[in-house]
Amino acid sequence: MSIPKTLTIAGSDSGGGAGIQADIKTFQELHTFGMSVITALTAQNTLGVHGVFPQSLEAIEAQLDAVLSDIGTDAIKTGMLFSAEIITLVANKLKEYEAKNIVVDPVMIAKGGASLLQEEAVRALIEKLLPIATVITPNLPEAAKLLGRQEMETIGEMKRAAIDLHKMGPKYIVLKGGHLLDGPAVDLLYDGKTTYELKTERIQTKHTHGTGCTFAAAIAAELAKGKTIKEATEVAKSFITAAISESLSIGSGIGPTNHAAFRRLAR
Ligand SMILES: Nc1ncnc2c1ncn2[C@@H]1O[C@H](COP(=O)(O)OP(=O)(O)O)[C@@H](O)[C@H]1O
Ligand SMILES: Cc1ncc(COP(=O)(O)O)c(N)n1
Questions:
Q1: Which mutation among 25, 116, 176, 211 tests ligand 2's pocket best, with the greatest number of atoms within 8 A of CB?
Q2: Is 192 left (phi over 0), alpha (psi -120 to 50) or beta?
Q3: pLDDT for 70-118, tens place per residue?
Q4: Where in this chain does the record put each Pyridoxamine kinase/Phosphomethylpyrimidine kinase domain (predicted)?
């Protein structure tokens, strides 16, 4: 039996809510075969990031070669990449193996405030990874950082930002509006011509650990199945909305979302 293959290149979250763990759970729920390349270990729980341990370039390269030379992928999601050296290595390998359907979640700062990307690595992200990305999925602070401007606060500002991000090379932009102060949870999809709004009610919960990771992994899973970017982002939005609406009160801080919630909707 053949199955769409998905790969996450990201950091491990020992607490299970974000990073590699969120991605693999999402890949599985969306009926794809999930694989991983771990760029860094984090000692993390719902209270925050207690340690970051980047893996050696040798270890990351060996994982990439092992997966890509034998199994291959139908879609790739990148998350926490931590340093300019890791970004350069990943970008070079994706080019070498002619990887398709590359979803870049430009992870920079964890919800608790810890840095998951070194300041000087932003340039490498812009120069090496954005030009080969099929789609990037920044949140509002990440989009502001990539554009070198102040954080956007309105849908109009988000639309202008999506157009400017598109000029930096990705084929599609999905700009996430989870950080807007109030109103519905609106994300924008921009394909270079048209802007589409993905809109749901804002769910009142503090348990949103890993929402960005889960959303991007869901887009990758749907692209792996051959869905269009519009179809993929619509499924991803339903998936993350279900996961947040049944979010889990696990630990004493910001809890994770429920990756199994979408399964009941899809029945
Ligand atoms: N309280 C919420 N209610 C409904 N959807 C939300 C909520 N918070 C975030 N989302 C959605 O979750 C996804 C991740 O968004 P966001 O929080 O902006 O990303 P990140 O986790 O990268 O900071 C987006 O689709 C966003 O609209
Ligand atoms: C290893 C790792 N990767 C990414 C995030 C971002 O999480 P979020 O999706 O909540 O912004 C995280 N907290 N840890």
A1: 116
A2: left
A3: 999 999 999 999 999 999 999 999 999 999 999 999 999 998 889 999 9
A4: 13-258
**Tokens in use for 267?**
């029945």
Q: Which residues are part of the catalytic machinery?
A: 176, 208, 210-213
Q: State the pLDDT at residue 267.
A: 65
**Residue 1 confidence (pLDDT) above 90:** no
- Assess contact for 96 and 28: CB atoms under 8 A: no
Contact at 8 Å (CB) between 133 and 102?
Answer: yes
Contact 176, 134 (CB under 8 A): no
Domains of the chain: 5-250 (3.40.1190.20)
Contact 185, 63 (CB under 8 A): no
Tokens of 64: 């990439």
